[in-house]
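ok trying again, last paste got cut off:
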Amino acid sequence: QVQLVESGGGLVQAGGSLKLSCAASTRAFTSSTMGWFRQAPGKEREFVAAISRGGITTVYTDSAKGRFTISRDNAKNTVYLQMNSLKSEDTAVYYCAARSGLRLRRLANEYEYWGQGTQVTVSS
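nice, full thing came through this time. structure:
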């Protein structure tokens, strides 16, 4: 079982940057593909980015491409989401998630473990 704890959220002005972190509790992290999702008020949880076990392969939703970067440090059992050029529409609770499969997936129900979320608010 993998326990995940996100941090790094906060309030930022439009155009600013934030770096989210997600720390995993066990070494099972290194055998997990990791994803970031977000959920805005009144909306469904949506995929943001995912990264392979070794950190070589990444995938992003279209709105995140060119602005967000997902990365991981397996020595620290941590996955990151660097967010630049933030927009008001990026405001949401951001969640990290883990799955044991090899393939990068965009559907929330394909992830087995979830963190509690961290709030990101972008003011315009």
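cool. The radius of gyration is 13 Å. The mean pLDDT is 96.
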